Every structure is written in structure tokens, then in C-alpha cells.
């Protein structure tokens, strides 16, 4: 409890929001599927914040994204993730997704900005996706899914 008490308010919010989303996925476990999709960023600047990157020609970058979601949501989840990869920054979400920047992190974008991002949990619709295969495999094991 002392660890929770020392967390700032934003982290407490995320922790409180995380528990129901993961609980929903546990309840939906029989209908969950694990799969991969190929995505590609668009040829554009990642975000106006990166002044150095704005001066550079941004070639499209291809990547594999690892996904866990309900079978019945699969088509919509694929559509959303491909949009997150193509479009920098906001996507009608409460927080920035930054998948576009994370995919680019080893190429054009200055190191350090998204280096720690490897996965996302969509809180309202209970799906998750990853750019890191190892993290995906661990989550598949947790939900007893074949990676």
C-alpha cells in the first residue's frame, strides 16, 4: 500500500482504469484471439514537436504489430491499429497513442521519446497490442492463448 500511496495522481488513475480493463479481458478469455498484422506509417512528419524531424524526408516504415482482442472485434481492431500506425499523434482517443512514433523510433525520430513504449491496452474496449514480440508472448501465456 505504501507504494500506491507514493504514486502521483496520474499513475493512480491509470492503475484504477487498468484493473477493470484487464478483468474484462479475463472474463472474455474464451473469445480472445492472438494474431499479428503488418502496418506501415505514412510518408509524413511524426509530430510538429519534432522540429529536427520536420526538416527530414520521412519514408514510410513497415512493422509488425501483435494483437490480443475478442474475435468479434478483430476487424475493427485491425482498422484502428492501422490508423494509429499511419497517423501521428491523436486518433479520437483521450490520450496520444504514439504508435506511429514508436514504429519510427529506431529510424528517423530522435531517440528517447518513445523508447519505452512496447504495448498498449485499450481501456474501454479491452484489447491490447504490442510492438514487442516478447511482451506479446508473455501476455498470450497469461491469457492462455497461442502466440
Which regions contain 5 or more consecutive residues with pLDDT less than 50?
1-10
One letter per element, helices H and strands E, the order comes to: HHEHEHHEEH
The 3D shape can be described as globular
Report the biggest beta sheet as strand number plus sense, adding barrel if it closes.
4 strands, antiparallel
Biggest sheet strand order reads: 1-2-4-3
Domain count: 1
Determine the fraction of residues in helical runs and give it as a percent range. Answer: 25-40%
Distance between the termini: 34 Å
Please compute the radius of gyration using only Cα atoms.
16 Å
* Structural class computed from helices and strand pairing: alpha+beta
Number of helices: 6
Number of strands: 4
What's the rounded overall pLDDT mean? 78
| Strand composition percent | 15-25%
Question: Summed up, what is this model?
Answer:
This protein has 147 residues and is an alpha+beta fold. The protein has helices at residues 2-6, 9-27, 51-54, 74-86, 99-104, 133-142; strands at 32-40, 62-70, 119-122, 127-130.
Amino acid at each position: 500500500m505504501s507504494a500506491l500511496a507514493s504514486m502521483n495522481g496520474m499513475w493512480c488513475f491509470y492503475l484504477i482504469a487498468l484493473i477493470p480493463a484487464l478483468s474484462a479481458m479475463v472474463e472474455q478469455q474464451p473469445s480472445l484471439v492472438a494474431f499479428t498484422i503488418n502496418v506501415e506509417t505514412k510518408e509524413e512528419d511524426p509530430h510538429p514537436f519534432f522540429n529536427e524531424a520536420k526538416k527530414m524526408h520521412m519514408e514510410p516504415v513497415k512493422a509488425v504489430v501483435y494483437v490480443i482482442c475478442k474475435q468479434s472485434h478483430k476487424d475493427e481492431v485491425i482498422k484502428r491499429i492501422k490508423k494509429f500506425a499511419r497517423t501521428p499523434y491523436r486518433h479520437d482517443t483521450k490520450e496520444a497513442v504514439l504508435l506511429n512514433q514508436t514504429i519510427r523510433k529506431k529510424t528517423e525520430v530522435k531517440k528517447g521519446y518513445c523508447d519505452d513504449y512496447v504495448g498498449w491496452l485499450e481501456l474501454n474496449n479491452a484489447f491490447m497490442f504490442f510492438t514487442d514480440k516478447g511482451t506479446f508472448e508473455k501476455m498470450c501465456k497469461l491469457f492462455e492463448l497461442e502466440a
